[in-house]
Design goal:
Distance between the termini: 38 Å
Structural class: mainly beta
Radius of gyration: 33 Å
Largest sheet: 11 strands, antiparallel
Number of strands: 37
Number of helices: 6
Length: about 675
């Protein structure tokens, strides 16, 4: 079903923030430098000229102090700055190498000495204030050097989100990690970016990239996760945040992408892991070659001027290629006799003997019966009057076969299912300083991935496909009306596609196994052949390795973001007002057990017999029709001659109300537990 929400969260709807010190517009991914200019007696110097210059780009903001001697340089790109102040009759004062972090407001006070303006007084770091008094929020910032130098690794690449759990009070959400596209799709609850801060739910967090939210509207997490080399700074806000972050109730993660400078810079890298360097898996057979594994992460960056001092660019690329086999020892499968229908060892290997008519007696020997409760001579299905089910034969044809005997009717195998994941990320950005009053930028972030893996079936019936097509972009315009009035506009857009497919998708469907009554999946879902090949029905038999299947998730979600903020400095105080509107569009298709799962539980004898003899005849699909489509498959009748309807009704009721399960026998006998 399609759901659309329009959130006109007029962020702090016409809200006004009045503070004791001028903390103008350190909005989202910018920073602010403020301070007071005084003379040798400590009196403020109004109308002094202050220049704030980005050392890397040589872009300068020229300001005037107000009547209180205060200057505020807001909406500055993070980086290193030089601050100069001068007035008639005084020497020029210069504070150099001021580091500006995302969302920070360093206070740089300058004292002018009497003299000629051609003389310069240098203000060193020792004169800078140690205590931060301009902000009340609590958080931690990591700059580009720490992002690149600290070790980090995950199967989805080196990402700033790997550092989240280093912050105080932050813990990683577990229990659903690793599902979805490449371990990082929506199916995995938003991947390792989904964390809990002081016990909060991950869905209450917000993720901001270049000034726009990239949080998907349903599961939380992030639309995209740029590589470490594309991020200039990464900040975690945990408490006492500014009112403009009213959307979030937990953690706020703020990322700022790198921009170009007046000098050309570039980098290249490659990280590799493979089986030649890794230790052997403990469960592998030491007599055979180690399971293949290769993880290759590579990429590079380049940035510089298009027009020096005015127009800059930066871009990066990251590719990830991961291939290998998982190790699956002790996979239990039926042996050749049981697969052929000869279950005689259930009698003879348990101390029993067959009489002349093929009836088992003595010891712990077991006698099997057909659905009409007639004993099958010598426990061999070939002697039964009931025909062998074509459905069970179709399942046996794809069930792994071989291995060594470890018990009655059971072999043990080692199965090493292969897997593969491919990821490509691209993060370009362009900045234009149109004039001293206007700064424009646009940034685009992409994250495309695809992969596959297998269950115990190594053919197309056991292959699961996953894909990701995620992107986010931001365009911004900052306009300075006067030295005390500034406006910021943002437009952002994002797209996140949740994609989790069952095993066998694109290859088979229940009808290929002779099972009717299970409808096709949605025709618009990719890789399903227009809904006709939705996957392999799952089977679980007690005592053997199963090949159960999961549900399907296909959820494209699109977000549009608009915001505008006006800031005004009045004396030693600041005033800010603004609004934000977000539009979310979600297509959610999430049926559980979309191709059916069949569990044969209880006595192993009964389970094997049912698998070999009985074909399910009729099914009922009960989809929920709320906001998501979730078909649930329940077998109502297995043997038409003696349908256990009474137990089935109780089973369905207990499933709905979450009560204890009911075990129903297709032979007409009812066990309820």
């Amino acid at each position: 079903m399609r759901r659309a929400r329009f959130v006109a969260a007029v962020m702090s709807s016409l809200f006004f923030v009045l503070v004791c010190a001028p903390n103008l517009g350190a909005q989202q991914f910018y920073g602010t430098i403020t301070g007071t200019v005084t003379d040798p007696s400590g009196a403020v110097v109004p109308n002094a000229t202050v220049k704030v210059t980005n050392v890397d780009t040589n872009v300068t903001s020229t300001l005037k102090t107000n009547r209180a001697g205060v200057y505020v340089a807001s909406s500055l790109i993070v980086g290193t700055y030089r601050v100069e102040a001068e007035a008639a009759g005084f020497k020029k004062a210069v504070a150099d190498r001021i580091t500006l972090e995302v969302g920070a407001t360093p206070k740089v006070d300058l004292s002018l000495a009497v003299g000629r303006t051609t003389e310069v007084v240098e203000v060193t770091a020792a004169n800078a204030a140690i205590l931060q008094t301009e902000q009340t929020d609590l958080g931690q910032t990591m700059d580009t050097s720490r992002l690149q130098e600290l070790p980090t690794f995950s199967n989805a690449g080196r990402r700033p989100y790997n550092f989240l759990t280093l912050a105080a009070g932050v813990t990683q959400q577990t229990g659903c990690t690793g599902a979805g596209t490449g371990g990082g799709g929506l199916g995995s609850c938003g991947n390792d970016g989904n964390v809990r801060i002081s016990g909060s739910r991950p869905r209450t967090d917000d993720n901001i990239l270049d000034g726009a939210s990239i949080t998907p509207p349903v599961f939380g997490g992030q639309d995209v996760q740029p590589s470490v080399d594309a991020i200039q700074e990464f900040r975690i806000e945990q408490n006492s945040m500014s009112a403009e972050y009213g959307k979030a109730g937990g953690l706020i993660v703020i990322q700022v992408s790198k921009s170009g400078t007046n000098q050309f810079h570039g980098s290249a890298y490659e990280y590799n892991r493979n089986e030649n360097w890794d230790a052997r898996n403990y469960f592998e057979d030491p007599k055979v070659r180690k399971s293949p594994y290769n993880y290759n992460e590579f990429g590079g960056t380049i940035g510089g001027p298009i027009i020096k001092g005015k127009l800059f660019f930066f871009t990066d690329y990251e590719g990830i290629r991961q291939h290998g086999d998982t190790v699956g020892p002790n996979t239990l499968v039926p042996n050749s006799l049981f697969r052929s229908g000869d279950l005689g060892t259930l009698c003879t290997d348990n101390g029993g003997t067959f009489d002349a008519s093929g009836i088992c007696s003595g010891g712990n020997g077991q006698q099997i019966h057909d659905p009409n409760m007639n004993p099958i001579p010598f426990n061999n299905v070939a002697n039964a009057t009931t025909p062998v089910s074509l459905v069970s034969q179709a399942f046996l044809a794809i069930w792994p076969n071989g291995g060594s005997a470890i018990g009655i009717g059971t072999n043990s195998m080692t199965i090493n299912p292969p897997f593969s994941n491919t990821t490509n990320r691209f993060n370009p950005r362009v900045d234009l300083n149109f004039s001293q009053a206007d700064h424009l930028f646009t940034a685009f972030h992409t994250d495309y991935s695809s992969g596959f893996n297998y269950d115990i079936i190594l053919g197309p019936e056991g292959k699961s496909i996953s894909r990701g097509s995620n992107y986010a972009g931001t365009a911004g315009w900052t306009h300075t009306f006067t030295s005390t009035t500034l406006n910021e506009f943002r437009f952002g857009w994002g797209h996140h596609k949740g994609d989790r497919m069952p095993f066998g998708v694109g290859s088979v469907s229940p009808s290929a196994f002779g099972i009717s009554g299970i409808p096709n999946c949605l025709s618009s879902v990719p890789d399903t052949k227009s809904g006709a090949a939705c996957g392999t029905p799952g089977v679980a038999v007690n005592g053997y390795a199963d090949f159960l299947n999961s549900g399907m998730l296909y959820e494209p979600a699109t977000t549009l973001h608009f915001s505008d903020t006006l800031s005004k400095s009045v004396g030693r105080h600041s005033l800010k007002m603004g609004g934000q509107a977000d539009h979310y569009s979600i297509d959610n298709y999430q049926p559980n057990d979309v191709v059916g799962n069949f569990h044969f539980t209880g006595f192993r004898l009964l389970a094997r017999l049912v698998l070999l003899l009985v074909s399910p005849r009729r099914y009922q699909v009960d989809p929920e029709t709320d906001t998501e489509r979730r078909p649930e498959v329940a077998i109502r009748s297995v043997v038409p001659r003696t349908p256990p309807w009474r137990c089935l009704l109780r089973s369905l009721r207990n499933s709905v109300f979450g009560e204890r399960p009911v075990l129903c026998s297709p032979l007409g006998t009812v066990w309820c537990r």
